[in-house]
Amino acid sequence: MAETCRKYLPPEWAPQSGVMLTWPHVHGDWARRLKQVEPVFTDIARQVARREKVLISCYDRAHREYVGELLTAAGVDMGRVMLRTVPSNDTWARDHGPLTVVCSGEPVLLDFGFNGWGGKYGYELDNQINRRLYAADAFGQTPMQTVDMVLEGGSIEADGSGTLLTTARCLLAPTRNPKLSKQQIEKRLMEFLGINRILWLQHGYLAGDDTDSHIDTLARLCDSRTIAYVRCDDADDEHYAELKAMEEELKALRAADGRPYRLVPLPWPRAKFDEDGNRLPATYANFLIINGAVLVPTYQDPADSEALARVQECFPDREMVAVDCLPLIYQFGSLHCVTMQLPESVL
């Protein structure tokens, strides 16, 4: 990539060519929950394929055939599905997938390092997925650049106008880029992503989240002036004080034009727990914007309908599509976490 080109990081609401998924398999942490989680992935693939392409990484040849049969049986438009054989540790495409910048009008894939959210889980296969897909011509003529820096897609939000929103707890975690200072991280992000300012949140977390507070579980840019965010209204909940502090931080932020952001609070679902009593990170902020629609995670919760209505406020011209993501949070992520959008012209 020419260092002199003016880079632009498209926001998620920009036109897309497709969405990337890494399908769950028996060799990973989903093994004992495959029957519960496969319908979620199938639903995501079906909804995306109605509007754009779906690029799916499958563990091996047999798995690829199985996924193809599964999707065909579910009525997915297979004309828009690209199945590739690429082994993986896990399924969180948001964090091991490529970030796409536009350089002189052409898309360029950036392959940042992935280290299992600071070495919490195995990651060697996941960290090779982008390069293997590239070698298999999954991205066509789109060039790819490998970047010597750990960065997960779920840890940043872009508005397409030069602003990046992130959390200090994640990006400054010593397990990610221990040799880089905050100033060095900011400089690299500006250099590689073509942004001109970074908004840092010091507060906000979800119990059960093991990403060190990814921004896409807490607060989402919906346009250059609107942020949808998680708000806890239960004063007895462990999250109340921390999310209240995050809300105050958001109120103090200013958009690029100097005005306060329009803040849209998302409802707080009832606490969800696994069989061992661990609280699970259910969040309505983990929605995915695609062409003409927003896929919104639901959790078989009384707050689901209110969440759909609130997200609709942020995207009045897009269709709201509910996706039951209760099975996903048993591995501590949700809808946005398992997807990575690819802007137009990539696929």
From TrEMBL:
Q: What is this protein called in UniProt?
A: Agmatine deiminase
Q: Which organism is it from?
A: Sulfuricaulis limicola
The record's Gene Ontology biological-process terms are:
putrescine biosynthetic process
Molecular-function annotations in GO: agmatine deiminase activity; protein-arginine deiminase activity
Which keywords fit this entry according to its UniProt record?
Answer: Hydrolase
What taxonomic lineage is listed for the species of origin? Bacteria, Pseudomonadati, Pseudomonadota, Gammaproteobacteria, Acidiferrobacterales
